[in-house]
Amino acid sequence: WQIVIGKGLFYIMLYLIWGIYMHIIVTKIFTLPQLGHFSDFMLFITPYIIACTMLGIVLSFLIYHREDCMLLFVFMSLPLLFMSGVSWPANNMPEAIKLISYLFPSTFGLNAYVQISSMGASIVDVNKEMIGIIIQIIAYSALACLLYYIKLHRKLRRKLQN
Hints:
The protein is mainly alpha-helical. The protein is about 75% helix and about 0% strand. Helix 2 runs antiparallel to helix 5 (about 105-120). The radius of gyration is 18 Å and the shape is globular. About 20% of the residues are buried.
């Protein structure tokens, strides 16, 4: 768990700064509407970034070369956008696709962000999305810790055998 927290804190701090920049600067540059409060945005974006970070740590176990990250995430971005229900109506999606979409933080994150920034929703109004994100944080954090435990246990076993 120490490795997961150490890696996670770095990425969380980095992307919190990036998220604040995007929310404040980029929306002003492009004159995008900002109906929600900054405090609601921060209460939403922090757990969302934690969930994304933990998913990233879990997915890092599937990737053996750095270049493969770009291929994987570029390939996943468009389907995840459609599965989130923001650009394609969720009511028109098959149930199986909806269930798969709940595995990714983008489903809850995109819907909550649109509601907060464009509709002026408060953090209470995006309660369903926040619960989904918190469940993902718990699940992906536990899975990341388990995967690191297995990885370190295997390395230790190999070291003792030599």
